[in-house]
Amino acid sequence: MYQSLYRFFIELTNGRITSGALKRFADSKLSKPLIPSFVKVFNINKEESKEEISSFNTLHDLFTRTLKEGSRHITEDASAVVSPVDGVFEDIGEINADKQIVVKDKIYSIEEMLGNSEALPKYLGGTYMVLYLSPSHYHRIHSPVTGTVNNRWVLGQKSYPVNRLGMKYGQAPLSKNYRHITEMQHQFGHLAVVKVGAMFINSIVITEEAKELAKGQEMAYFSFGSTVVLLFEQGTFEPLQDIQLPAEVRLGQTLGHLR
């Protein structure tokens, strides 16, 4: 019953009009008075913001803030895969041969998530990681490895919540939400960075369209909290074994190694 009610109310509120209205508000100066309380409630670290918080004119400016140089350390270890975001490392596991992954006891179709029959076979038997960004997190997305971008594509129309309730009661948001996918080739194989839109705000802005990306280089940003799913080709990635999930991670933190 709870699942049905949750989905019903989400459908009522997740239309084009409501989504557009919220986005316009966050982009408008009418949202500026909310910034101080938002910073306080979500305990945002003002000291690491490149710009003064008081200089932001909209909530969108706050959400998409940049960091002071040196705020995050990117390892020089060529084999290290780093977190592309500040967020919560929610889950990790194997991509089953039947094209499915299990996240928080829910089954997701990797075939549907990728929507690309050419890319799909590379990741069967590989590894997935799920990194969740709340509204409080730094919203910019960086490359987890150094490599060449093979392809970029966009899928989905609407977006549903990817928070705890959304993952529990939602209808497969990781594979159905609006999402922007970047596939990269690194020294050992392929990696897909699936950027998943959050409820109401579908905006995923690509800030770097170059073919070559360096580890830690900015590639995009979310306009609101959301989720990044990393997909690794079979036999190319060894995750760290000592991370207890769920775990807060920061941009540049080592998650494992290529092999």
UniProtKB/TrEMBL annotation:
Per the record, the major location class is membrane
Active-site residues are 86 (charge relay system), 142 (charge relay system), 226 (charge relay system), 226 (schiff-base intermediate with substrate)
Q: Where in the cell is it found?
A: Cell membrane
Q: Where is this site: Cleavage (non-hydrolytic)?
A: 225-226
- Record field: catalytic activity: a 1,2-diacyl-sn-glycero-3-phospho-L-serine + H(+) = a 1,2-diacyl-sn-glycero-3-phosphoethanolamine + CO2
Q: What keywords sit in the KW lines?
A: Cell membrane, Decarboxylase, Lipid biosynthesis, Lipid metabolism, Lyase, Membrane, Phospholipid biosynthesis, Phospholipid metabolism, Pyruvate, Zymogen
**Top EC class for this record:** lyase
User: Which pathway is this protein engaged in?
Assistant: Phospholipid metabolism; phosphatidylethanolamine biosynthesis; phosphatidylethanolamine from CDP-diacylglycerol: step 2/2; Lipid metabolism
**Protein's UniProt name:** Phosphatidylserine decarboxylase proenzyme
The topology of this chain with respect to the membrane is: Peripheral membrane protein
The cofactor named in the record is: pyruvate
